[in-house]
Amino acid sequence: MRSTIADFTANARKGIADKNLQAALSRLSEGFPMKRLEAISRLPEFKQLCDEAKQIKDHTLANLADYLEAYEEKATAAGAHVHWASDGADARDIILKICQDAGAKTVTKGKSMISEEVAINEHLSANGIEPIETDLGEYIIQLRDEPPSHIIAPAIHLSKEQVAETFRTEHTEFSADRILTEPRAMLDEARTVLRRRFVAADVGITGANMLIAETGSSVIVTNEGNGDLTQTLPNTHIVIASIEKVVPTLEAAATILRVLARSATGQDITVYTTFSTGPARPDDPDGPQNYHVVILDNGRSKMLGGEFHDMLRCIKCAACVNHCPVYKAIGGHAYGWVYSGPMGAVLVPGLRGLAEAHDLPAASTLCGKCQDVCPMGIPLPRMLRDWRTRDFDRGRPTAARFGLKTWAWLARHPRLYRLVTTIGTGVLMIFGGGRFRWLPLAGGWTKTRDLAAPEGGSFVGLWKRGER
Amino acid sequence: MNAPEKPPLKIGLFATCLVDLLRPSVGFAAARLLTQAGCDVHVPTAQTCCGQPAYNSGDAKDARALAINVIAAFENFDYVVAPSGSCAGMIREHYPALFKDDGPLKARAESLAAKTHELLSFLVDVIGMDNFDARFDARATYHDSCAALREMGVHGQARALMQNVQGLALHEITGEQEKDSCCGFGGLFSVKYADISTRIVDAKIEAIEKTGADVLLGGDLGCLINIAGRLQRRGSKISTRHLAEVLAGTHLETPPIGEKG
Fold first, then answer.
1. What is the pLDDT of residues A405-438, one digit of tens each?
2. Considering the domain boundaries, does residue B259 fall inside one?
3. Residue B141 belongs to domain spanning
4. What is the DSSP string of A237-298?
5. Is the domain covering A43-301 a CATH 3.90.180.10 domain?
6. Which of A267, A382, B101, B148 is the most buried (most CB within 10 A)?
């Protein structure tokens, strides 16, 4: 997937100006948080479950190599081929080879952020294999050649009118005067198109919400059943998952499932929760003959034990995204790549480097709502700040640096600070008349906001002179 | 024989740089409230900035240097009180983290952190006083600043104090998302990402306007200057004040934020 992370500020401006997007973001930020709240209020032990889920992940990460090996052993015993990919290029090569060996012409795909991360669609297309997204949202954005704008609702930036327009352009086999005003009609049409693709596909690729070490199983949660058709109909099923998706036991997986859907969509559980273990057994009525699992590192093992270790607890529920005021203001495309919102702002600099992604952790008010709603207790604001510290240590941000350093130097010298600020506030007060509509060097503020002028004098100075 | 009277609590009032330089009346309001609550109020002249702008910009070195200044200026008081959840939160939540690898300073930072409070919660939780015989005739709404709400646990304290202000009718911001949403200030964020900040404050203002209030109150000057500045630019009639002004009665002497005296 092409990255426009470096154009963050321009992307954000575009998002703010996009009326369709703003309407969609308002709906999203009302819908998901409200449903989450209703779901967790129905479950008094929700907080306790979150603590348990967090402990499970902490324990797993502390023994990650052991659990990954245990998973590999069980999965292999069930007939799976387990592949280890150290980066995106590795994963692309492995998956392409499997598809080529299977003689694949078309590949169906369940929704998988990891597959977006390694840009598998572009790679398959370039090699003459057609990838078909089967999650409705992913399918729509694939038709539009757009990246996902949300990790669990990839087409959330679109209105139903925009989707209808896309279907009219792309689905030329249907009558031109058909009615496409209701979501149901569009769903039926997509289902008709996709049904044929499901049956014809040679390979199905899915992600995994979890890998279970105890049983060698992969787990996906979906609401459309598309994941099941993707992984059971073709002859070959490829699972792609990152290393931190492993959990020790079925019991542990069940605990995480109980917090996942509630935090994400506010469902008690998703419509489909599917466990698959190896290829079809001889007496299974259906299922793939070949079952591959590609386990991706892509920089995650470097996060282990460091200041971004806690990020590996993330179960990709998007609660932080749904509650983030910055995401709500600009939408997911502004973040310029696969992951958006607070989880993206912490994860992406780790995956792609600060040189490209320094804006993402900087563009936050650190309001703390993300950490509040994170079921895994990930200290997102602390980690956003840690990225800023790393960025500062490499000599950025160049513009603000001088001002910051000057302020800090002045504030370390209280007497001089008193003198300079007294003169400064005095001048500002004289010209202020209550507030400023424009001030030199404060254009970022005064372009859209007035700025209160100083009342006059400093509190400490006035107090010292005996005013009370 | 009567038990000897306890000496009054010695309070180091940390005005915060925004109050110190932009709105001293909030500092005087805080001092009045603390005095009314029977405290012995001191204002160390060596106080400047808590270091939060540096800290949140990733400049840990300068943040530590400023923190050392604050620790030295305030560590000998019984309590440190600031009319800001954000600056008090900086001291209480983040100073210990700044010195986590420095034994002696870590101990001093932790000791200061343990006795540092946001003003409103100090009055209610520590002193146990929520009535200052104040009068303020207004339909008011209240903005919970993020640091006060999520770092310092300030919410009910402000309500308890407002409930005892005669004439004040509180019209809360409603909406599951809006009631505790950020105003988009975020310190330097508001300048560096001004477009995003403006979009966020607009959403907040729409929620504020829905309450039908004439006055916006809050406990953090940073947020209040941001919201007031945008309200004024939008031509709104809603005026903005720090709650301490209303409680201490300094609103009778000073115009609302950004308005002419």
1. 888 889 999 998 888 888 888 888 888 778 888 8
2. no
3. 131-252
4. EEEEEEGGGEES-HHHHHHHHHHHHHHHTS-SS-SEEEEE-SS--TT-SS--SEEEEEEE-T
5. no
6. B148
